[in-house]
Q: What sequence folds into this?
């Protein structure tokens, strides 16, 4: 929920500063509200086949292509540092490694022990020695400011209790001109919105995913410059936000 003191008319949004928006999003929401959901994610971390099936289903079988398109939007070069926020079992690592190379760095942050264990095992199997793993809450991460060349968050922001806080932390940690790419799910738009009252509460209950949250709106408020592309009846989207200042 955007704090009322900081809600502005749509036409003024591009001019709102990051500092102004993020000052208004300091929230007391924290992870102690998350345990049932986190234990489910720990479980899915130990059952990667089931997790891959769920991921495939929520993208109607298009997740590989959409993931490639999302990560392809990150303007990274060899040697860069990139954040994978809510990295889960490490599904984005291979594509990120291709971009930053062995001389670059991936910071992989996640709250779930089970997911991080899978991600670490994957990095060992693939011989990726440039990934730094952090277990913690995205809204409380303490990365240095102006340090990242890019950041990505796939299917995680919409399930975070304090998504505003996470967005602001990412924005502050990016270098000016760097991008934050979000590939996620949201409520259907158009004729398919008929499914929202059924699919929404189901996913809210099982994964903490909140279909009523306006994650895209919050990204736009924090960053200003944001391109959004929708797929699958509007229920999947890729948002590419650029830190302007
Ligand atoms: C559905 S999984 C997505 C994982 C991966 N990015 C992918 O695309 O498959 C959501 C991930 O977000 C993580 N997560 C949820 N809330 C978080 C928070 N507040 N801080 C850090 N990670 C969080 C979960 O632990 C989980 O691994």
A:
């Amino acid at each position: 929920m955007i704090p009322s003191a900081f809600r502005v008319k749509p036409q003024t949004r591009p001019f709102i500063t990051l500092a102004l928006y993020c000052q208004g999003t300091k929230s007391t929401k924290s992870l102690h509200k998350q345990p049932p959901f986190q234990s489910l994610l720990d479980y899915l971390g130990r059952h990667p086949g089931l997790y891959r099936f769920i991921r495939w289903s929520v993208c109607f079988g298009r997740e590989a292509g959409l993931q490639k398109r999302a990560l392809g939007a990150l303007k990274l070069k060899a040697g860069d540092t990139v954040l994978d926020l809510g990295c889960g079992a490490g599904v984005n690592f291979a594509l990120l490694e291709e971009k930053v190379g062995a001389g670059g760095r991936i910071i992989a942050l996640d709250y779930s022990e089970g997911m991080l264990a899978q991600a670490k095992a994957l990095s060992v199997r693939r011989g990726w020695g440039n990934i730094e793993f952090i277990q913690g809450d995205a809204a409380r991460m303490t990365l240095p400011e102006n340090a990242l060349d890019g950041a990505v968050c796939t299917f995680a922001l919409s399930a975070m209790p304090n998504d505003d806080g996470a967005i602001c932390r990412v924005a502050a940690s990016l270098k000016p001109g760097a991008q934050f790419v979000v590939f996620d799910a949201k409520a259907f738009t158009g004729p398919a919105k008929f499914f929202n009252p059924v699919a929404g509460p189901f996913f809210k209950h099982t994964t903490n995913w909140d279909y009523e949250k306006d994650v895209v709106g919050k990204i736009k408020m924090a960053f200003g410059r944001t391109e959004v592309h929708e797929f699958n009846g509007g229920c999947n989207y890729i948002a590419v936000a650029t830190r302007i200042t």
Notes: Residues 26 and 165 are 7 Å apart (CA to CA).
